[in-house]
Please model this.
Amino acid sequence: MDLRDEEAQDLLNKAVEIKGRLYAKKNGYYYAFQNERDIDYHGYRVDDVGEDVKYQLDKEFT
Model:
């Protein structure tokens, strides 16, 4: 994760569920959050999201 903990938590709070995974966008980058245990998430930057996911995120995170 290339964001500080506070930034990552804020982004997770705003993330939207697409295809069973949480996604968000910040500073032109796409992020995914994978559920590890109960309320624990592993967040990371993704460069290989599909165009359909990018489209939804671009609309949500302007």
